[in-house]
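#struct-queue
[09:14] JT: dropping the first one here, sequence first, then the structure tokens:
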Amino acid sequence: MGALADDNLQKLLRELHEKASGDQARWADREARGSDTDSGYEILRLSEFYLAISPQEGELLYLLARASKAHRLVEFGASFGISTLYLAAAAADNGGHLFTTEVQPEKCAAARAHLKRASLTDHATLLEGDARETLKGIDGPVDFLLLDGWKGMYLSVFELLRPKMAKSALVAADNWSHDGAADYVAHVLDSRSGFTTRMINYMGISCFTD
């Protein structure tokens, strides 16, 4: 499986997935301490939560990016960089580059450290800040897009990059059924969108076919 099979990367991914599995306990502890769990975007920014994809989803993203020969990849929402590592590995194998985004400074520092540990820094650039601003400078064509940040921003990020997408570009949207992503889902399912979409587990996979 190319770069993804690297022993060092696999060890790191196992460690990170194990840490991410503690999110439920961390959330329960936060509720027990009486913290505000309804503060929307601020909750997503909390540095203690990984909000990560599963190993199976990571491998799916890697395989989709590899099979589509994606050269320029973009990720919205790196968090601690678990999905970033899968996509950076695909970028390395494809001779391409990943541009990933994260708004929370502590998570940016962690994601950069993980990319360095995995020897993937030459194949990934982390853009710190609001993705609606940091992604404005990304040149096309974008071959692969992962939407995995704040669900209410899926459509705005998608629309920002839509004019830069390559023919047959793939878009993967995690937590597809989340209420916050409803406007994005309605948009790509519309027959006029130019995209063909199917759901695989919790991800909506769309291909630009127009």
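[09:21] JT: and here's the second one, same format:
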Amino acid sequence: MAREVRFVAKFSPTDRYRQRHFTEKGRVLKFTVQYETKIGGNWLPVVRYDTAHGFFHRDQLHPGKRTEKIFIKASDYNKALTFAADDIKKNWEIYKVAFLKEIQDESKE
């Protein structure tokens, strides 16, 4: 039987990391990891890695609901989960700056 793990970790009062994964006998079956930032009282997803649709990919979320889906080759979901978690934890500030710039640019149009 698969075991579900969920948790949220704060990077700052307005930035958080969310993870949900399912394992069975030490093997990751599926997962979602996501970086979110709080703007105007709402938590907005900025970047998400997951295995929805049956493959590992990254969703780069943009203001205005546009999502860029990027396929990532992975030999197994255990390695993919580690890669995704490490990327978000190392680069969330870069993702935030780019996301806020897009919001700013969109408001100028």
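[09:30] RK: nice, looked through the second one.
[09:31] RK: The helical segments are 77-108.
[09:31] JT: good to know. Residues 3-108 form one domain.
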